[in-house]
């Protein structure tokens, strides 16, 4: 036998048995986003490398260490998207959506790629739900996306996730703060990790985001940005805090939240879970008023967040949250013999047309393995058809949940199935009208 190839390090498979977890969170995030008036956008998985260098920033970890960059034939290089915002801004500009009136509100569910050291909650391919809003500087907009994230976490059944909030000001207040940080860290330069020594001159705020314990310890005494905010930035932050308080959203002002990406201005926030270990940031976001013009558009205020879906699911699992039940087949049609099997194939077709799920034996097995299969797929309902049933024109329909059986006339199968038993078993009332339509269709087919 040939050797099996394994999946790449830092990637995961979502197998059928686990898929309902994904459907649950995907359903919650998209429905909640739509309630807030966000519309879905889909952009390519790979983009021009320059897009990320310009938007994410050429001193960021994402750009310096984590990008998956591929070159195709010719000289262009492309990068698998490490995050969602840059591609969305590019698409909004390229498709002229920024001219269609403000605010523009979009959401997406994407996979993202970063070459990081794989560990629990940190993958090389991961999934993100994200939203972006364009064209408003109002603190109500900042509050709106935070409220959206909080509503999602609430709908997931998570109530112990903490919101950490900060303002990192505008380029003007940040310039002064940067100098203060440099002055603070300079005497500690030799103790800092290698990356942070580099950050010190280029982007000292990144030092506050470092995960190395020594850097963290040194950073604990660093000056905080909130002491350097200009009047406008301070007022914006105060308003946001008041609005959140009125919504009843609890938060901690956390000057250590600076976000890793260059384009953030003013509001930054993270939702942090203490349930999933070191990689506890389930959602991170903020305002990035400088990004759209950086990418060649007019100056347009913008904000958004990204929510890691693997981390969201992990937190839900650890908190005992409920996921949607996996969908199971409504009816399994077992058969004995070729003629009966052909009949089950036609019946399955009619039942699916009525909007229910049905399966019949595709392998050509005996009754016992068929029944085992029906059990395994969790069929709600089983009907066995053999020579005898074909001859008498009657068969038994079994409710797998209660064990109850009913004798039905095959000629009338669909109408009986439709009116009486479906209503009883599926508890969702299939009307006579549909049942009639189905038996008509089946009749036509058998001619
Ligand atoms: P972290 O500080 O954990 O590295 P980040 O600041 O790099 O996160 P963002 O770029 O803001 O993360 O991405 C938004 C969200 O995506 C994060 O809050 C997290 O939930 C998730 N995320 C980021 N990187 C990964 C990864 N490598 N694997 C799984 N989820 C991730
Ligand atoms: Mg990161």
Summarize the structure.
The chain contains 16 helices and 16 strands. The protein has helices at residues 19-35, 49-56, 61-66, 85-94, 139-155, 171-185, 194-202, 213-219, 231-247, 291-294, 309-318, 338-353, 367-376, 387-392, 413-426, 432-446; strands at 39-40, 46-48, 68-71, 77-80, 104-113, 125-134, 162-167, 252-253, 265-272, 281-287, 302-308, 331-335, 358-360, 381-385, 394-399, 405-409. The protein has an eight-stranded mixed sheet.
Molecular structure report:
Helix content is 40%, strand content 19%. Strands 1-5-6-11-10-9-7-8 form an 8-stranded mixed beta sheet. Helix 12 packs antiparallel against helix 16 (432-446) and helix 15 (413-426) runs antiparallel to helix 16. The chain is an alpha+beta fold. The two termini are 49 Å apart. It is built from 16 helices and 16 strands. The protein binds adenosine-5'-triphosphate (ATP) and magnesium ion. Adenosine-5'-triphosphate (ATP) is lined by residues 83, 114, 116, 121-123, 126, 128, 260, 279, 281-284, 306, 308, 310-311.
Features:
single chain; 447 residues; alpha+beta; BirA Bifunctional Protein, domain 2; Rossmann fold; 2 domains; eight-stranded mixed β-sheet; five-stranded mixed β-sheet; 16 helices; elongated; disordered C terminus; binds adenosine-5'-triphosphate; binds magnesium ion
């Amino acid at each position: 036998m040939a050797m099996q190839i394994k999946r790449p390090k830092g990637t995961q498979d979502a197998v059928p048995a686990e898929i309902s977890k994904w459907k649950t969170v995907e359903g919650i995030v998209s429905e909640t986003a739509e309630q807030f008036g966000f519309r879905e956008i889909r952009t390519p998985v790979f983009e021009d490398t320059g897009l990320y260098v310009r938007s994410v920033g050429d001193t960021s970890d994402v750009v310096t260490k984590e990008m998956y960059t591929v070159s195709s034939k010719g000289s262009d290089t492309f990068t698998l998207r490490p995050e969602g915002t840059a591609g969305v801004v590019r698409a909004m500009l390229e498709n002229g959506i920024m001219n269609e009136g403000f605010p523009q509100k979009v959401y997406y569910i994407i996979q993202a790629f970063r070459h990081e050291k794989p560990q629990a909650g940190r993958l090389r391919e991961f999934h993100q739900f994200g939203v972006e809003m364009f064209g408003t500087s109002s603190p109500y907009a900042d509050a709106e996306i935070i409220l959206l994230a909080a509503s999602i976490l609430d709908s997931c059944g998570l109530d112990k996730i903490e919101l950490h909030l900060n303002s990192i000001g505008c380029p003007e207040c940040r310039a002064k703060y940067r100098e203060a940080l440099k002055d603070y860290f300079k005497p500690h330069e030799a103790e800092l990790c290698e990356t942070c020594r580099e950050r010190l001159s280029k982007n000292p705020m990144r030092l506050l985001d470092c995960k190395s314990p020594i850097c963290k310890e040194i950073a604990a005494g660093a000056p905080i940005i909130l002491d350097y905010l200009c009047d406008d930035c301070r007022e914006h932050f105060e308003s946001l805090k008041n609005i959140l308080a009125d919504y009843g959203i609890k938060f901690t002002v956390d000057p250590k939240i600076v976000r890793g990406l260059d384009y953030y201005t003013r509001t930054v926030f993270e939702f942090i879970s203490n349930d999933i270990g070191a990689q506890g940031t389930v959602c991170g976001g903020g305002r990035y008023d400088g990004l759209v013009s950086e990418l060649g558009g007019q100056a347009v205020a913008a904000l958004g967040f990204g929510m890691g879906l693997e981390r969201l699911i992990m937190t839900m699992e650890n908190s005992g949250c409920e996921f949607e039940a996996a969908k199971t087949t409504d009816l399994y049609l077992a058969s004995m013999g070729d003629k009966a099997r052909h009949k089950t194939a036609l019946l399955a077709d009619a039942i699916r047309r009525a909007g229910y799920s049905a399966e019949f034996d595709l392998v050509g097995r005996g009754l016992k393995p068929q029944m085992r299969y029906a059990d395994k797929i969790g069929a709600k309902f089983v009907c066995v058809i053999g020579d005898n049933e074909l001859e008498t024109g009657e068969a038994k329909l079994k409710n797998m949940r209660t064990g109850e059986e009913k004798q039905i006339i095959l000629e009338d199968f669909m109408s009986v199935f439709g009116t009486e038993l479906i209503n009883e078993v599926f508890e969702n009332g299939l009307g006579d009208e549909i049942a009639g339509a189905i038996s008509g269709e089946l009749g036509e087919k058998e001619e």
